[in-house]
Design brief:
Elements: E1 4-7, E2 10-13, H1 14-24, H2 32-71, H3 77-86, H4 106-109, E3 115-119, H5 123-130, E4 134-136, H6 137-142, H7 161-178, E5 189-194, E6 198-202, E7 207-208, E8 216-222, E9 225-233, E10 236-242, E11 256-262, E12 266-270, H8 280-295, E13 299-304, E14 307-312, E15 317-320, E16 326-329, E17 334-338, E18 345-350, E19 356-358, H9 359-375, E20 389-393, H10 399-416, E21 423-429, H11 432-436, H12 438-444, E22 449-454, H13 456-466, H14 483-498, E23 506-509, H15 518-524, H16 526-530, E24 535-538, H17 541-553, H18 556-564, H19 571-574, H20 587-611, E25 616-619, E26 625-628, H21 630-645, H22 651-668, H23 686-696, H24 707-727
Parallel strand pairs: 3-12, 3-24, 12-17, 17-20, 20-21, 21-22, 22-23, 23-24
Antiparallel strand pairs: 1-2, 2-18, 4-11, 5-6, 6-7, 8-9, 9-10, 10-11, 13-14, 15-16, 18-19, 25-26
């Protein structure tokens, strides 16, 4: 039973109340009484606005549903477009403008590079992600499928020199391509020298230097010996590590033991899609880890090879420069925090009428309070060198909801004694109404915006739900070739550049979801950079290291400069609903689609509901590990709900598929001692019932979101687990 503390007109869960008073508020410069009084007023005044915006979503969806029912046999794109304007789903476009965001760190203004998204409730993952600012290219190549295993280059339990030689050859090729020498190759270097200048001695005794001398930035020495050479290309750094006594370095002609690449320049510490936080207990874990990151003292200990390993945040990196000075580079990613969207409420705080407060408002207040510590220097490191706090705000629908986020941020600044526009915003372009009105959305936060990002999975989930009554959707994999998606990706970049985001903000692209398929990622993910993105999401520090190679290969500034002169209007294409032209699929094709969706839903939900894992590598039906979060769940559940609604499959068929796929998921998790098989008792399995709800109640879920069902079922599981523990 949750215990509460009465604070003015609010009731605050005891553990949250104590965390804020004892850990978050001290040294923040915010008086405790003023904080709670101000927070209470903020809830009283803004919660009704939040609720009204959600009611507007429902009203618009009902109108769209009704229109499609009436026009299913007489669909006219022009009439449809005018209807969307009439209900203000498609807004009148703002006049041209330029964003005015100021006090932005270089990671947004100048650097282009990979971005990690990590559940902040997992301290170990969060630390690893923050430390992924620098990654070992040798390790990333050796441990992945980028280096093929034929020819004696298998990954073994111990070091395989044949594989290592292939890794080194790949890395030297990278140096030749990115930092070419005036003569010769990095393969032939027997000695590097660095100081007032960079030189390399070749095997034939000839000395050479870089073709582009400006790419040499500095060096490190230890006891008079050169240990590192710092190079720079397209704004990203590379560190050639030298140690002739190292097991790898002593086999290298030039004594190179590794090549470090600057990788995840930014990381989103996630409170949202990848996190299972359903109550005060969970939220305190989220907030406490965020506080540890902002203070720089977060640590995580775990057992590895029979030893206890403790992870902490990496220090900054200091190099000597050619002119006798020094340069200090961040040792950690610049961190953003992703708050939850406008939809969910949480019982961690109750208002004067006993209602749960909007979780997004709670997140904005508490994560900003915590981040203020880094601005005040209350810790080992500063996250922002420009005095900014970076918050990603997801799942907003249209410009009014973005304007509300702007109002909320301003009120939080006043509450915490922060200057106006200290809180910067990342706008996730993952809902159809935002895609269509992105120019207006950015306008509402033109003094705050530092990030826009496309997201295929959530965006597809909303595409299906918004047009649920229009007809049968194409098969899920066919979505990637649909007209609306291609237009959406192009439009996002075009609108961002036209609004002046270049040099002030990130224009991002979505996740590579297959962490084990790094060779394919290297072959394909560069396309996002060529499309104009100056950041893109990766699923792991290893993937960040490898994806960084794309930013050396492709000059994002040049790409964006070319795209800025284009001025396409993609509204009509974005409004093209991905309906199947021919639904005469074979029974085998329909069943294969259901199997794939059901297995993915169950594989993710069982961990979410019964283990509290919000993001993990879940094996798909072909046992390929995919990074799954609520966005993947949304598209799969909405897709089955659509086919069920339009008679492509039956309720009995879906239930049979779920039960059969539950046995597959049970087998895939057989090695997990904490796992509770669903197929042992379908009726008693809370996870299985949650999966059924997501499909059979999917049409009625607000915007097709999975959170209401997941939260309800997770709370049910926690309560029953507590009862079982109590009964013992």
């Amino acid at each position: 039973m949750q215990q509460y503390e009465k604070v003015g007109q609010l009731k605050v869960a005891t553990e949250l109340f104590e965390f804020i008073n004892q850990e978050a508020l001290p040294e923040s410069g915010v008086d405790q009484q003023q904080f709670w009084d101000g927070f209470s007023r903020l809830i009283e005044e803004l919660a009704p606005e939040n609720k009204a915006l959600l009611a507007e979503r429902d009203r618009i969806q009902q109108q769209i549903d009704q229109w499609h029912k009436q026009h299913r046999d007489s669909f006219d794109p022009a009439v449809y477009k005018e209807f969307l304007k009439d209900i203000n789903y498609l807004e009148a476009e703002k006049e041209d403008y330029q964003v005015r965001t100021d006090h932005v760190d270089l990671e947004f203004k100048q650097q282009a590079g990979p971005q990690l998204v990590v559940p902040v409730n997992n301290a170990r993952y969060a630390i690893n992600a923050a430390n992924a600012r620098w990654g070992s290219l040798y390790d990333a190549l050796y441990g992945t499928d980028v280096i093929p295993e034929e020819g004696g280059a298998e990954r073994l339990a111990t070091y395989n020199e044949a594989r290592g030689n292939k890794v080194i050859a790949f890395a030297k090729d990278f140096l030749d391509k990115t930092f070419p020498l005036q003569t010769g190759s990095h393969h032939d270097v027997t000695e590097y020298k660095a100081g007032a200048a960079f030189t390399a001695t070749l095997a034939n005794g000839e000395e050479t230097t870089l073709q582009a001398a400006e790419k040499y930035r500095g060096f490190q020495e230890k006891e008079g010996e050169l240990t590192a050479i710092l190079l720079n290309n397209h704004g990203l750094h590379v560190d050639i590590q030298i140690d002739r006594r190292h097991p790898i370095g002593k086999t290298d002609k030039a004594g190179v033991k590794d090549i470090l690449v600057e990788a995840a320049i930014t990381t989103i510490m996630d409170c949202e899609d990848s996190v299972t936080a359903v109550d005060a207990e969970d939220k305190v874990v989220v907030y406490r880890n965020w506080l540890g990151l902002m203070r720089g003292d977060l640590s995580a200990s775990f057992e590895k090879a029979g030893k206890t390993v403790t992870r902490t945040l990496n220090p900054d990196r200091v190099y000597s420069t050619a002119n006798g000075g020094t340069v200090t580079l961040r040792g950690r990613s610049l961190m953003l925090v992703r708050n939850v969207g406008h939809l969910m409420t949480i019982n961690a705080v109750l208002d004067k009428d006993g209602n749960e407060v909007p979780e997004g408002i709670l997140d904005a207040v508490v994560t900003s309070l915590i981040a203020k510590h880094t601005l005040l220097g209350n810790g080992k490191y500063q996250n922002s060198t420009t005095g900014s706090i970076y918050i990603v705000k997801p799942k907003m629908h249209g410009s009014k909801e973005v304007a509300f986020a702007n109002t909320l941020f301003a009120r939080v600044e006043d509450l915490l004694g922060l200057e106006r526009f200290t809180l910067k915003i990342g706008v996730m372009d993952e809902e159809r109404r935002t895609s269509l009105n992105l120019k207006n959305c950015i306008y509402e936060v033109k003094e705050r915006v530092v990030f826009i990002n496309t997201g295929f999975l959530d965006r597809t989930g909303d595409e299906i739900h918004t047009s649920m009554e229009a007809g049968t959707m194409v098969r899920k994999n066919d979505m990637k070739a649909s007209a609306w998606l291609q237009a959406y990706e192009k439009s996002n970049v075009q609108i961002g550049l036209a609004a002046g985001l270049q040099g002030k903000a990130q224009i991002g692209k979505g996740m590579w979801a297959m962490p084990d398929l790094m060779k394919a990622m290297l072959e394909q993910k560069g396309g996002q950079i060529k499309a104009g993105a100056n950041t893109a999401w990766v699923p792991s520090p290893t993937a960040a290291t490898l994806h960084a190679l794309h930013y050396h290969e492709i000059n994002v500034v040049e790409i964006q400069n070319e795209l800025k002169i284009q001025n396409g209007n993609y509204i009509d294409e974005i409004l093209t609903i991905p309906l199947a032209e021919d639904t005469n699929w074979s029974p085998e094709q329909i069943q294969a689609e259901l199997d794939n969706n059901a297995q993915g839903i169950l594989g993710y939900v069982v961990r979410w509901v019964e283990q509290g894992v919000g993001c993990s590598k879940v094996p798909d039906i072909n046992n390929i590990g995919l990074m799954e979060d609520r966005a993947t769940l949304r598209i799969s559940s909405q897709h089955v709900a659509n086919w069920l609604h339009h008679g492509i499959c039956t309720e009995a068929q879906v239930i049979e598929t779920l039960e059969r796929m539950a046995k597959v998921v049970d087998e895939q998790n057989a090695g997990d001692p904490a796992y509770r098989p669903m197929s042992a008792n379908f009726e008693q399995s809370i996870a299985f019932q949650a999966a059924k709800d997501l499909i059979f109640l999917g049409k009625e879920q607000p915007s097709g979101y999975t959170e209401p069902i997941l939260h309800r079922r997770r709370i049910e599981f926690k309560e029953k687990a507590a009862q079982r523990l109590y009964s013992k």
